[in-house]
Amino acid sequence: MSEVESLINIPVEHCSNIFGQFDEYAKVIEKTLKVTIIVRDSSVKVIGAEAAVQRASGVLNYLYELSKRGNQITRQNVDYSIAQSFEEKADSLIEIDSDTVCRTIAGRPIKPKTFGQKEYVDAIRDKMIVFGVGPAGTGKTYLAMAMAINAFKNNEVNKIILTRPAIEAGEKLGFLPGDLQSKVDPYLRPLYDALFQIMGAESFNANMEKGLIEVAPLAYMRGRTLDNAFIILDEAQNTTPAQMKMFLTRIGFGSKVVVTGDMTQKDLPRDTVSGLEVATKVLSKVEEIAFIKLTNKDVVRHPLVQKIVKAYEDYEENQAKAAKRREARKGGHTGERIDMTINIEYEAKEKLDLDYEKIITDVVNEAVDYEKCPYEAEVNVTIVDSESIHEINKEYRNIDSPTDVLSFPGVNYVTPSDFDAIEDELENNAEDYFNPDTGELLLGDIVLCVQKIKEQADKYGHSEKRELAFLTAHSMMHLFGYDHMTPEESAVMEAKQNEVLERLGITR
Fold this sequence. Notes:
By secondary structure, this protein is an alpha/beta fold. The chain has 3 domains: 4-96, K Homology domain, type 1 (Ribosomal Protein S8, Chain: A, domain 1); 102-300, Rossmann fold (3-Layer(aba) Sandwich); 331-503, Collagenase (Catalytic Domain) (3-Layer(aba) Sandwich), CATH 3.40.390.30. The chain has helices spanning 12-19, 24-33, 50-68, 75-85, 93-97, 115-126, 140-153, 180-199, 201-209, 241-248, 275-282, 303-331, 356-370, 386-397, 423-428, 430-433, 450-460, 464-479, 487-503; strands spanning 4-9, 36-40, 43-48, 102-103, 109-110, 129-133, 159-164, 213-217, 229-233, 256-261, 289-293, 340-346, 377-384, 405-409, 441-449.
């Protein structure tokens, strides 16, 4: 692939900010986007493949614009702009930086830093109630706090109310030392920290004394009507459905509400349903309520935090899939058809004059049902010419001739179709047996020869439909661990594949 060059003019006074200490950020861009960056005074040359150069140029232009606006470039800025460059969104990031919510007591501007955060901030402006759901570090609480303080300073509301359920410690408040305030303060500390940083301790204390800012446990909301207030419910994943309903029904006229939470950090007892989860299902279609889902891409803490969040998301997703598989195993086959993916590729030049996709799909599904496979499954079927199956047969079986069908099982059975016996192996080696994207069991691959289907249909005096169905059923039995090396094995396998065809009403 030929290389191209692009020149960008970046004044020297911005280079150290954009490229980082010891050119740290430049090295990240080079390594990730596979380009070379050469800096000569104010001239920055980017060398690489055309698409990569375009991405890198977009990232550098974005960072330059941030620097011109007085921003201190961070690793998060670099990582996020690189990620967005692959989605051709790097140029749009400039619009996000222009949205200043408010400033801290030190004068630092508080802005959304990702597309997800921008959507979140816009939703708070436009909607009466907003649910911000996402992992730690995505700015859910901090941005909501900034929006609340901004609304308070602009006299849009008369009061700020910050609340959260106080259960994280796994203890009853009555068992904790001190008076009531000292009991609840540890649970509310993250809210205090954000208030001090944005508003300043002096202003916060003054408004607290006047009753214009209230920080209290969720239980204190019961029986109240909250008018003309900006209310933030933090850590909402730790509410029960009853608590969430109680809270939402306290909202009065002129109020705005932000509910934040992270379902991966639920501290409720194991069998307790989260009020946040229920609210998401119940209220998703109610006007004036917005649900904003933030992801690991919106994490604005140290880059390592983003990687940690992503790793936990992947782990929890895999655990959920494993739990689903275990539950299916525990209940056994219920008689309901198991969902599955059947990938069919027709690579032969010679065509079959029949609806081969329907025939194959029907047989595969019927075979899976017949063998009582407890898992959602995936089967790959390829139809080829005799030359291709000849090559495959020679390569994988060392047989120098074409054949009618080849089967490549994905599971190593102790006994055919005995999923109980291989349960531990399947769970312990899930990455080998299950599709990581779908969680489906990879039953295996089938290769069919179009010429053999026609020849054998003519030879045995039945339809091509029946021959195709027979070979598919035969191969499916192989995928379930059956074989025909002995007369006894052959009899069992033949009986099963014939039963599958009979259940489908496919005869000679």
